[in-house]
Amino acid sequence: MAVQQTIAQWLRGEGGGVNIPWFSGRENGAAWVNGWGGYVDAQISLLKEAARANWPDYGPTDALPHQAGDAGLIVSQFEVEANQRTRIKTAWGDHGRRGQPVELLTQLYWAGWGGSVIVQQNGLGYSLSAAPTAGTDPTGLLVITDLGETIADLNLFPAPQREGITTSGQTAALSPAGAASTRVITSKTIPAGNSWWMFDSRTDLCNRFAVIFPSSTPALLTYGIATFAAATFATVTWNNSRRFQDENYLTLVGAPVVTSGSPPGSIYESSSGRTTTSTTITASSAWTGTALVIAFPAGTNPFCNASDSDLNVVRTIIRRWKPGTTKCVGIYALVSGLMWGWPADQTWGDAGLKWGGQVITFSTP
Amino acid sequence: MTTTLQQLLTALTQTQAYNDLLGFLSAEGFPVTAWPAGSVERTEMMAISSVLVDVVTNYIPAIAGGNFLDYAATDWLRLLAAQKFNLEYNKATATVGLVTLTAATGSGPYPFNAGDLIITFGASGNRYTNMFSGTVPLSGDLPGVLFRAAFAGSQYNDPANSGDITLVTPLPGVSLTNPAGDYSDPVEHVGAGTGDLTLGGTPIGSHQVLINIDSSGASGVASWSYQLDGAPFVSVGAVSSVTNLGGDGINITLVNGGSGTSFVEGDTYLFSTPGTWIQDQGSDDESNDSLKGRCRGRWSSLSDIATEEYYDVLARSTPSVGSQVTQVIVLPDAEINNRLNIIVAGPEGALPGGTVDDIQAYVSSRPRITDNPVVQSPAEVDIALAGTVYVSFSQLATAQAAAQTAMLDYVNGVGINGTILLSRIIELLMEITGMIKINVATVTINSVAADFVLGDSSTFEAASLTIPLGLTWVTV
Predict the structure, then answer these.
(1) Which residues contact A229 (CB under 8 A, 6 or more apart)?
(2) How far, CA to CA in Å, does A32 sit from each of A13, A28, A42, B8, B41?
(3) Of A137, A178, B194, B437, whose Cβ has the fewest other Cβ atoms within 10 Å?
């Protein structure tokens, strides 16, 4: 078997290469061989790297989004690079589960939209019991929930009416004289005691579902932890590196959590140290501990907001991974209080409940 | 240091390669900066770098980029599609259409074989050749002669009733027409029924009508429903005919077949108005973007559950259709569970009924259980542009031709249910050589100074630009 060697080694005559001892064995000749050979070796290395650029285990970091795109995946700023490489390599398995709720939930998780719940009009809810593992079939994590039951028959479509069809083939309201035939529009009655999720009065469109977020998820909350180690300043890096396009955003600095020593008199943000991905928190005196910092665009809810690009990602994922004949009617994020219908065992009127709360709706295209 | 993808994709110049080589030699102690211009050393290094410039300029970027859909193009892309995704690109197709040959009194008969007749359209200069043999009768008509474009490509899409078709291979006394009736012909029927439709009336506008037989029987006994331009189906019951369908002047009569069950439940009948002389629409080689889309969509075929992308790929990959399909949108029906509307269009807009039928047959053979995919073409909406533009006097003719081309490319390429942007029209017109200024306030789309939105969630429309453009040209 041939011994692998570089061009430089070959030019130096190593391992049976070019034998020019009078040239490569002398100082200037050796330098020339090393320089020229080294340059050619560098180009060969680049050729090898170019060939491997689209291999998940070998491609450079900036090739991963392109590899993912070719594999029908979206890699996000919320997952580490090793995770992205594994997912790209194992895309075959993921796509085999296209259309299944477990895979839609998993793809949303990787995009930073974890903790989601799929609720179907016909009474089933789906969620994941734990974080999925890249490259591993997540089916075992699927939790199937029977949604709340109807307490009375559902018959919400407009009252049954008779529609006339004239001999010219045109429809007409009610029953005109001389109608060639008639048809009766009725609703579909859903008997009481059936699990159900009501989007509207249509009881016949059971191909509909929604994605709800009963709790915060990384894509909806931009935050960072300022860690002070006997210092008067700390740099906070946002969990969502793509949240802001410029430095025009607001922050909420939380109360200091002291781990040793005394607390500072005050802590605040130094806007001069702000970038799109981080900011600097300053303390009035050196201290040791942490502080939670939340960032949000002006005019939005600090605890539930999403960038247009992140919203487009979740819409793309839903559209790509749902069955073709189904329709997602919306994305709902619970900001405070309780949400109608979830959790499924929540009963209105239970002791301790209070009116009020907020749900933010993100529409699907 | 790890090389990034962007570095691999960047083509170096010979000078940069030369400087790189000097860097390696300098690291080995050579006094590269002391070598004067024209010296043996510098000349030698320049010669070596010229030998390797192909590697650094072409090979490395091409190898790196050729394996990514985002960067591969044409030959590299087709290789990548075939090797990694098992997809062959759709090759260009030739236009095929029907022409009527008419012999004047006393002329003929003229028998001919396939390939004997060559015709040319005066306006475009496009040539076509007959596909089958036939005979023009003495003093009579020979309708329905199939002619095929001389070359494949979308430019072979001459209009119906052109009035300017001549025989390159002369037959004395014979004139040619390419008529298109009020309706597409024939009505495309899918199913086992022996009945057919007779169409009449005076249709208003461009429409596509899909008839679905809801229960079997003869005309007047079978119940049926219709879908107009992709809107929800409307049941008409067990009637033998309908007049003025949808208020668009379309009359439909169900005609019984000679034997067997005339109208069978589940059968469909598809037609459009106005008709066309084109049987198969000519198209170019599949574009890079289309092939990339099919490659990415290929993943959807791994699942037993059909996603929207799965049906998109099916529509674009119908074997007998080739690259005729350049636009696809897939939407769940707003009224019927598990019905999927698959709207397809070609480079010139709505596809011929036969082509839609072929796609329907291909898709219908491969759905998920309980899915009901319905393939249809969008209705064509005429788009009239108006506005006052100022152009250099000497470049008026050139600018007018360029404006027509630019507007055709943009408007007809907006896509099914797309939005025609007023700002984009103005931008494209201003880019034309010779254009001096545009009176923005006068620019309208269909008489309205606003963006034009095609279709909605239940109706599907594609744009068809009105030619010549309604622009007012003021020379300066």
Answers:
(1) A288
(2) 14, 6, 15, 26, 11
(3) A178
How far apart, in whole angstroms, are the C-alpha atoms of residue B342 and residue B315?
8
Among chain B residues, CA nearest to A180: B239
Residue B66 · residue B80 · CB < 8 Å: yes
**Are the Cβ atoms of A50 and B64 closer than 8 angstroms?**
yes
Helices (H), B373-434: 396-412, 422-430
Cα A208–A197–A144 angle (5° rounding)? Answer: 85
Concatenated DSSP letters of B29-63: T--GGGPPTT-HHHHHHHHHHHHHHHIIIIIHHHH
Nearest to B306 among A60, A72, A323 (CB): A323
ipTM of the complex: 0.70
CA-CA-CA-CA torsion sign (B449, B454, B457, B458): positive
Q: How far is the alpha carbon of B24 from chain A, nearest alpha carbon, in Å?
A: 5
Residues in chain B: 476
Tell me whether A178 touches chain B (CB under 8 Å): no
Q: Do B376 and A362 contact (CB within 8 A), yes or no?
A: no
What are B239's two structure tokens?
A: 């009637």
Distance of CA B134 to the CA centre of its chain: 31
Task: List chain B pLDDT tens, one digit each, 476 residues.
Answer: 579 999 999 998 888 888 888 899 889 888 888 888 888 888 888 888 888 888 888 889 999 999 999 999 899 999 999 988 988 999 999 999 999 999 999 999 999 999 999 999 988 899 999 999 999 999 999 999 999 999 999 888 888 888 889 999 989 999 999 988 888 877 888 888 999 999 999 998 778 888 999 999 999 999 999 988 777 788 999 999 999 998 889 999 999 998 889 999 888 898 888 888 988 888 889 989 889 999 999 898 888 888 889 999 999 999 878 788 988 999 888 777 788 889 998 877 778 888 888 898 888 877 776 788 888 888 888 899 999 999 999 999 899 989 998 998 888 878 888 999 999 999 999 999 999 999 999 999 999 999 999 988 778 888 888 878 899 999 98
Give the distance from residue B445's alpha carbon to the nearest chain A alpha carbon, in angstroms.
25
| B245 contacts A63? CB cut-off 8 A | no
Cα of A49 to nearest chain B Cα, Å: 8
Residue type for A324, please?
A: G
β-strand partners of A312? none
Rounded to the nearest angstrom, the minimum Cα separation between B444 and chain A is 28
Residues of B in contact with A95 (CB under 8 A): 299-300, 302-303
Per-residue DSSP letter, B416:
T
Indicate yes or no: CB of B24 within 8 angstroms of CB of A180. Answer: no
Instruction: Name the β-bridge partners of B389.
Output: B438, B473
Chain B touched by A50 (CB under 8 Å): yes
**Encoding tokens for residue B333?**
């029906």
Q: B435: closest CA among B386, B473, B408?
A: B473
- Measuring CA to CA, which residue among A97, A90, A326 is closest to residue B302? A97
Return the CA Rg of chain A: 31
Test A165 with B237 for CB contact under 8 angstroms: yes
Chain B residues in contact with A59 by the CB 8 A cut-off are: 5
| Whole-angstrom Cα Rg for chain B | 29
Chains A, B: CB pairs < 8 Å:
180
Contact by Cβ (8 Å): B73, B288: yes
Chain A residue numbers touching B310 (CB-CB < 8 A): 324
CA distance B49 to chain A (A): 10
Tokens of B197: 């439709």
